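Appendix B. One record, verbatim.
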Amino acid sequence: MDDHATLDHKLALMLLESFNAQGALMAWDARLTSITPGACEISLPFSAAVSQQHGYFHGGVIGTLADAAGGYAANTLLMPVSECLTAEYKINIVAPGIGDRLIARGKVLKTGKTLVVSSAEVFAVQHGKEKLCAIMQQTLFVIDKK
């Protein structure tokens, strides 16, 4: 994949509309910050709604953000004909989510007719410096777009 490739404007708007229909992500103020063919970046500011008892980003929130980044990376290649649903994912949280925001970067590893495999890295950003906090790999079902 060409890292500098861009999406068709109509497809980009369709992806943004789909992303904005994600209730949890909207409630947490997540933003789709970059989409290119086979890749996606999502940013999430820190707030009480996404924290755990020690003041870090909650592990479930980190997982949700990684899942969404991998899924929307896949959707850049599937939409407008198809889209995807998560079948499974494995996440390793390798450092606490300490910072003022998270950035999740998803990318497609392999596409098929019925399954897509993608991955995501999640970074905690503190004082402008990114620190890797999680690594995720997922399998997604390809479904017809409704």
